[in-house]
């Protein structure tokens, strides 16, 4: 979700990603599949006032082999914006194969990483190991509930980085310079995240829940790329 | 003194060739002149060759050859043999009709007689001519399995005459296909001799490299034998030839190394060699003739389905180089096809490659290639678009930027759906399949361009590949389509057509048709209503297919359809319930849910459980009654047994379903 530009912080360059959003493999968690939607809020409170923006998210691509997912994020009640602001984001799933706990970009230091991951209770058992070596020596099979290892996942940890504005121009006065530390619950499809941008308020909390878009139940669509 | 002027018109020359056969001895000098004239006219001139072929010149030249061979050893006779052999070789060079005419006239047997001549010029002429013939795919295979043939081939290969060894190598390249043939040649020591020839003339080196590749292709035993020659010197020699000053030699050495690498990953595994191969083949693109034409195809065979090599190619800027090559002046068909295929391969996996491709602004070149005269170029352009549009990011971004605009890409692609070649049609369908995903729900461009109409037509094709890909494209187009888009697609497709596709004879088509319906009923309840028109024709077809099929993928898509319908209102849920637990005792019907829950396919289990979750959704008025019926049918008990399922998705969906059932039962008690 974009935030209002408060300083002259230019958006960071879009990182290249090796990803193949082919969908030959089914997602390990159906709630994290393409087409799934989520709704909730992002707390953008500052010392001056309490504020939360409504946020909708839709998953558009998912490629577990490359630890990749992507989608659309829609911020609904952005002050001074005439329409909801839609951004395209790409996600890195922390699988210790494609991506590790250490971000190494987007102005995030290892200390920032540990501080943010520590906000998620599922991360607690890994804290000491990650502090020691960034989690490189972790035996993934001991933590099936976190890692996207085979089809065993529970609370996959991810980073979401907004890449571009979909429906407004870059000079709209908003920035997507930061990124999200995200924890997804495969139990109920809830998403918790923290927005990180050294130039914005710290620990802006993102809380989303799986939505049914007015239906009396869960619905699943799919596409398959060639 | 004035003399009568001799005409050089093909008609007259051909007539004089015919007249000369009877007088090889008497008028041989004149005949020699005519032969020379014909030969000079046809060298490098396809039109002239075809003219002479139509005039029936080839059998006449063969007759002259035979007469001259039979007439003795005179020098004029020898010259006639040499000139007629050269003319035949020229007819066989580069024109299929020419090769066929030479073969039909029985020239091979007579030309082979030349090889045993004591006259070196005659031997050279025969060997050169035969080599031309054996370079064509039309010429018959040489049968190594016959002992005499093998002896003769070895005789040729061990000859001191360069043209003869060249011929032997050409015969090997032309006819060595099966592993039995490869083994016979290896056992006869052919590889060792070919390695010796690598140190010979330029021609010998090149034809040896070609033959070595033919003998070791897809054969790890032959590769081991080759690598073992002189303790690996043969392999080192080829690695050296990769850097040769002659482009053709570099290409052939690269091809040999690629073949070795494919047959046995133990050799040619160093990243440095692979990087060199990538770089050399990319540079060869700039060369004229065969090296430049074939280099991209060799590069595709090197990197196909190898993500590590895609990364290596990216690291040495191959995407950038190929794109800038494409932007240069006109590129001939074969080379253009090859370059597009390399780009398609590189962009099939890596987002970084796609980014570079898109930023190089070569999409216009690809768009033009969609309209190329050559079907293979059109296929390559479609394949390239298929790879590029595998990027969700690019699909969104570029659709917005207008790169995949209606005029430049969509309309030419839609036109290709009516191409005379079914291979082109399939390639276009695959590209359309990806492009129509169009995440912004703007499907109108495809409706307006006639794309949907064409796809629906192709989904009725007798060719199951066309049918499959057409339905697949419609399925992707239906993904997240808005109400207008869905209506547009369905009005072209019709409910009855959709019902028949669900029951198609091919399971893959059934699967795509069901996935299409799954996307149709995802969204507002209005879409679900479409399942109930015409007495529930579509829903009946879905339920019937799910009950009867044994293909898991078909069952999964079918169950997701039923699950999406069950996410609708109470009437929708009840309709699904009747398929789950039919009122009349029907063993097949009542058994299928139980059978699916016991499946080893966790996605199928999950799809069934989502359906149960929707049927027992707490907000619906009749959920309590449905829970009771599911309990009575033993489904709830079966779910309880799955509460510790090893698949976490199954496990937690089971818990959701059981949790809902408990709440509903508590509220109703």
UniProtKB/TrEMBL annotation, chain A:
One of its GO terms (biological process) is negative regulation of gluconeogenesis. Residues 1-25 are annotated as: Disordered. It comes from the Eukaryota. One of its GO terms (cellular component) is vacuole. InterPro entries: GID4/10-like. Belongs to the GID4/VID24 family. This is Glucose-induced degradation protein 4 homolog. It comes from Colocasia esculenta (Wild taro).
Automatic annotation (TrEMBL), chain B:
It holds the Pfam family Arm. GO terms for biological process: proteasome-mediated ubiquitin-dependent protein catabolic process. Its main location: cytoplasm. Keywords: Cytoplasm, Nucleus, Repeat. Gene3D superfamilies: Leucine-rich Repeat Variant (1.25.10.10). One of its GO terms (cellular component) is GID complex. It is found in: Cytoplasm; Nucleus. InterPro entries: ARM-like, ARM-type_fold, Armadillo, ARMC8/Vid28, HEAT. The keyword Disulfide bond does not apply. This is Armadillo repeat-containing protein 8.
